């Protein structure tokens, strides 16, 4: 299956196919229907140029220069100048996965046949993708409207023989690699430079990566919190289906059901009044808090999936109606709001997780040895792991401030409202990294808390406990905590925890 191509038609790309291209190097190819649609819209562009029609980005300059008419003899120079002048991003390069995601998403958007670009030009981009030639794209510099102009310009530079690429782990000049691989630079025709960089594909690629990370973290949070409930002798009444049916929130219902399945058969839980009458909110309200974040995830996932097959450049060409229309599909507001929303939702997963870690480590709250060590005083145990979790949670609070509430006008106030969606998307990834490590800390402390019990654990918590113990031994004597945190984080990020603790 991985050797068969993903056929791009601009309508049917799935998130699973996107992942296969990004992570497993599955090849892509333009569908025959896409080629036909692209050729039709290209004829519309050629006709407009031949007639000398005044159309934005085809026979005019860009942004504030939209009122400047360009001679048709200069159309190729116009497009090449656009790419070169807009390639001014700064910051660390985007990851190879994000770049691959951008490349396939841009090719898919152009395959819809609304952009007036030649199939041969899109195939040149696909050739680089399939050959593992990845443009070096700085991560900063996009306002998220007129799309991700600077990052996408860097993505296109290698097509015209300029810029840098990463190839087989080496960063080098694009022209050098093109020559080595026998690929000739292309010449952009009228409209093509604009079609290639006017879009939301950096935001969309980051968000697509983020929702997959978030889904894994949401499931992991349920598993880890179930272990914490066992270590603290939690009260399962708070998971009773009648409680959650009475409210009717879907995410809450799903989390409560998942927690019941994870804890099925556990003898570590207690009845009301046995240890306490009610648990603290960080235990009792797991379904409500995790469930709300799950609902936010579902909402964001739907937006991102729609964006995988969205046409986001300008102007667009509608061949059936013989119309060329200027609009604003490049505006990143849908993704900006979605990224901010998911960032807030996932920050809350870390917030409540850190409170559970504190509860495990604090003897006044846990009934367990202070900081989960039998040699308190001489040893500090896991005392400082809670400090680290608190620091990451605090950092997330700053990162979760919405980027989309800001807008700075650009292009001499022609582009007077922008989304800042690329900033929202990049912040989201940083939040998810922090959430992963906060959950890793809770997993470590929950497993250590369970060392002080010999009771039977639940159907889903037993394999989760065995997995961490396969890689991280119980804490007997003090040792550096950073390797343990990173090991647990890797087990979470790789999906091994979710796979190990899967319950029906």
From TrEMBL:
Keywords: Cytoplasm, Histidine metabolism, Lyase. The modification 2,3-didehydroalanine (Ser) is found at residue 146. GO terms for cellular component: cytoplasm. GO terms for molecular function: histidine ammonia-lyase activity. The keyword Oxidoreductase does not apply. There is a cross-link at residues 145-147 (5-imidazolinone (Ala-Gly)). It is found in: Cytoplasm. Contains an active site 4-methylidene-imidazol-5-one (MIO), which is formed autocatalytically by cyclization and dehydration of residues Ala-Ser-Gly. InterPro entries: Aromatic_Lyase, Fumarase/histidase_N, HutH, L-Aspartase-like, Phe/His_NH3-lyase_AS. It comes from the Bacteria. This is Histidine ammonia-lyase.
């Amino acid at each position: 299956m991985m050797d068969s191509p993903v056929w791009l038609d601009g309508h049917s790309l799935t998130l699973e196919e996107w992942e296969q291209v990004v992570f497993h190097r599955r090849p892509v190819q333009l569908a025959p229907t896409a080629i036909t649609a692209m050729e039709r819209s290209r004829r519309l562009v050629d006709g407009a140029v031949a007639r000398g029609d005044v159309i934005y980005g085809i026979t005019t300059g860009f942004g504030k220069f939209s009122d400047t008419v360009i001679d048709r003899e200069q159309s190729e120079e116009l497009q090449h100048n656009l790419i070169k002048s807009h390639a001014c991003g700064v910051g660390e390069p985007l990851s190879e996965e994000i770049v691959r995601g951008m490349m396939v998403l841009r090719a898919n958007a152009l395959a819809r046949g609304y952009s007036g670009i030649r199939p041969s030009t899109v195939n040149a981009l696909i050739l680089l993708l399939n050959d593992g030639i990845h443009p070096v794209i700085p991560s900063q510099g996009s306002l998220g409207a007129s799309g991700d102009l600077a990052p996408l310009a860097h993505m296109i530079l290698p097509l015209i023989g300029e810029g840098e690429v990463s190839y087989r782990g080496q960063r080098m000049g694009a022209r050098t690699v093109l020559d080595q691989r026998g690929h000739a630079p292309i010449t952009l025709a009228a409209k093509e430079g604009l079609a290639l960089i006017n879009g939301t594909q950096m935001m969309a690629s980051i968000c697509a990566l983020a929702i997959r990370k978030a889904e894994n973290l949401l499931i992991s949070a349920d598993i880890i919190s179930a272990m914490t409930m066992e270590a603290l002798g939690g009260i399962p009444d708070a998971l009773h289906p009648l409680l959650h049916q009475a409210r009717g929130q879907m995410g809450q219902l799903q989390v409560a059901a998942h927690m019941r399945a994870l804890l099925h058969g556990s003898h570590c839980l207690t009845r009301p009044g046995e240890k306490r009458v009610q648990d603290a909110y960080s235990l009792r309200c797991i379904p409500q808090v995790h469930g709300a974040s799950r609902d936010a995830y579902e909402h964001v996932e739907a937006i991102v999936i729609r964006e995988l097959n969205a046409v986001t450049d300008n102007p667009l060409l509608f061949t059936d109606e013989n119309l060329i229309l200027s609009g604003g599909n490049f505006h990143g507001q849908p993704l900006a709001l979605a990224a901010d929303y998911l960032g807030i939702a996932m920050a809350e997963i870390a917030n409540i997780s850190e409170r559970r870690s504190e509860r495990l480590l604090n003897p006044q709250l846990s009934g367990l040895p202070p900081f989960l060590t039998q040699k308190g005083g001489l040893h500090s145990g896991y005392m400082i792991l809670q400090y680290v979790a608190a620091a990451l949670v605090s950092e997330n609070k700053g990162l979760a401030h919405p980027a989309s509430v800001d807008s700075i006008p650009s292009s001499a106030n022609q582009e007077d409202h922008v989304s800042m969606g690329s900033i929202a998307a990049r912040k989201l990834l940083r939040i998810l990294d922090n959430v992963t490590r906060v959950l890793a800390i809770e997993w470590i402390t929950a497993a250590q808390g369970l060392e002080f019990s010999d009771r039977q654990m639940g159907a889903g918590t037993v394999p989760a406990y065995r997995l961490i113990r396969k890689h991280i031994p119980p804490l007997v004597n003090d040792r550096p905590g950073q390797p343990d945190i990173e090991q647990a984080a890797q087990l979470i990020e790789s999906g091994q925890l979710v796979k190990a603790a899967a319950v029906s």
